[in-house]
Design a protein that fits this description.
The chain is α/β, with parallel strands linked by helices and 413 residues long. It has 15 helices and 14 strands. Bound molecules: pyridoxal-5'-phosphate.
């Protein structure tokens, strides 16, 4: 069956025809038959250069042979036990060793689960009720963080989704990104704040990049007011380098959430942090958290293979950043005059807004109609970009110079 027919069928059986909203491309999404390296092949027989990379996890590209081998080895031994496996301490040692902010880690099955648990843990540890998030920050699809961004800094949150109780969301406050003064003002006035949760680089409307000193200021202010700092590194973890944003920017959070890349393309999440905080997680402590699929051997095998590969290939992050630079450099001057190309490592985005956005308010000024035309033009050229002005483009180890030329050509044409 062709994509159009599959989608027509799916729409009668599944809300919006999809398993996650951003995939519902108009008039219909392409259905994928297979993928390898930097390329996706659709059921319609088209092959596309992938700049979405499943929204971040596929740092080594699709179907990387070493990850595949690790999964295959485990498949032969069964794929779910409901007991501990030797992978767990091995992977925990690897991950905590790479991040200065981590003494202990709990593996879960998604990034959403990780942030949900980290927030509960912050509340359990501090005995305080409220959390602060950054406008435009995305931390998964659970109630406490599904708060409409864009409201005033100190006002109470408004639910972003039907079915989320306003009373619950009232405990989630929002602040603009890149604004340490607003954070200081909020914390000075409120003593009920358990934690600030922040994507160190806004990856779900971006990338929107921290101004010089912003993350360090965030650390100092939260520390001064005894508020826990949660770095949501579900995207930036192993994307910006080994040790993620906390190493890149030299900031040590109290808690960190990971996901995406650490599963090597299989479902995973993790939350982690200082020993005195993590010790409160059940069964060691009173903050309950549990999951049937947590630490499942396939995800851990794929994750360990990925992280070991990264350790064995120290030039990887410089190469990845160079790829994004090549696209940037090839942009014609008129494109740079009318829009802004933003990149950090292998994350990039062309914003249809003259100046690079500094926060969510800026991002919302982008010309989304122009983006949609550009997106279609890129698809016609054979390049699959994430289908929204507000999603980051990702490059992988598998992207070739020829791929980059075709991607860059799309900005020139
Ligand atoms: C993707 C993402 C999540 C949610 O992860 P899932 O695995 O989709 O549940 C949380 N935080 C950030 C920063 C993300 O990018």
């Amino acid at each position: 069956m062709q994509s159009r027919d599959l989608f027509a069928d799916a729409q009668t059986l599944m809300p919006g025809g999809v398993s996650s909203p951003v995939r519902a491309i108009k008039p219909y999404p392409f259905y994928t038959a297979r993928a390898e390296g930097s390329h996706i092949t659709t059921v319609d027989g088209t092959t596309l250069i992938d700049c979405c990379m499943a929204y971040g996890p596929l740092l080594l590209g699709h179907a990387h042979p070493e990850i595949k081998k690790a999964i295959a080895v485990q498949l032969d031994k069964g794929w779910l036990y409901g007991t501990p496996t030797p992978y767990e301490p091995e992977f925990a040692r690897l991950i905590t060793g790479d991040h200065p902010g981590m003494d202990m880690v709990r593996f879960v099955s998604s990034g959403s689960e990780a942030t949900m648990a980290a927030i509960r843990l912050a509340r359990g540890f501090s005995g305080k009720s409220d959390i602060v998030k950054i406008e435009g920050g995305f931390h998964g699809a659970h109630d406490a963080v599904l708060v409409k961004a864009g409201s005033g800094a100190t006002t109470m949150g408004v639910p972003d989704s039907a079915g989320v109780l306003p009373a619950l969301v009232a405990h989630t406050r929002q602040l603009p990104y890149n604004d340490p003064e607003a954070l200081e003002a909020l914390l000075a006035k409120n003593t009920d704040i358990a934690a600030l949760i922040i994507e160190p680089v806004l990856g779900n409307i971006g990338p929107v990049i921290p101004q010089d000193g912003y993350l360090k200021a965030v650390r100092e202010i939260t520390k001064a007011y005894d508020v826990l700092l949660i770095f949501d590194e579900v995207i930036t973890g192993y994307r910006l380098g080994i040790g993620g944003a906390q190493v890149k920017f030299g900031v040590r959070p109290d808690l960190t959430t990971l996901g995406k890349i650490i599963g090597g393309g299989l479902p995973i999440g993790a939350f982690s942090g200082k020993r005195e905080i993590m010790s409160l997680v059940a069964p060691q402590g009173p903050v309950y958290q549990a999951g049937t699929f947590s630490g499942n051997p396939l995800s851990l095998a794929a994750g360990i293979a990925t992280i070991r590969w990264l350790h064995d290939h120290p030039g990887t992050y410089a190469d990845l950043a160079e790829k994004a630079r090549i696209i940037d450099e090839s942009l014609p001057s008129e494109k740079k005059a009318t829009g802004s190309f933003v990149r950090i490592g292998s994350m990039f985005k062309y914003f249809f807004r003259k100046d690079a956005p500094q926060n969510y308010t800026d991002v919302k000024e982008c010309d989304t109609a122009a983006f949609t035309r550009f997106w279609q033009k890129m698809l016609d050229r054979g390049v699959f970009l994430p289908p929204s002005q507000f999603e980051t483009n990702f490059l992988s180890v598998a992207h070739t110079p020829q791929d980059l030329e075709i991607i860059a050509g799309g900005y020139i044409a």
